[in-house]
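User: Hi! I'm working on a homework problem where we have to compare a predicted structure to a textbook description. Could you give me the structure for the chain below?
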Amino acid sequence: MTHKNPWISLAAAALLSLPLVACKDTKTLQENEQLKAQVTELQKTNDQLGNNLEAVTAERDELTKQVDALKAQLKPHKAKHAKTKTTRKHHRT
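Assistant: Happy to help. Predicted structure tokens:
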């Protein structure tokens, strides 16, 4: 029986596993780059949606003011109409 040095076996195992580790690192780096690109795109989309939200909120506020102004104009008209309305009584025969 020959004595094998355990360090030689360990070194051989380490050398054989290096390509696998390098391959995994390459895949991980590619995935990280893809994820970074996706995050950047999502941040852009988020900024655009934030801007859209601000614009829509401003439009809503303006429309609310217009509706309130129209309601204020309508109230005096309704009051005049209510005062001039005559009621008729129905008589049964």
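For your comparison, note the following. DSSP finds one helix and no strands in the chain. Residues 22-81 form one domain. Good luck with the assignment!
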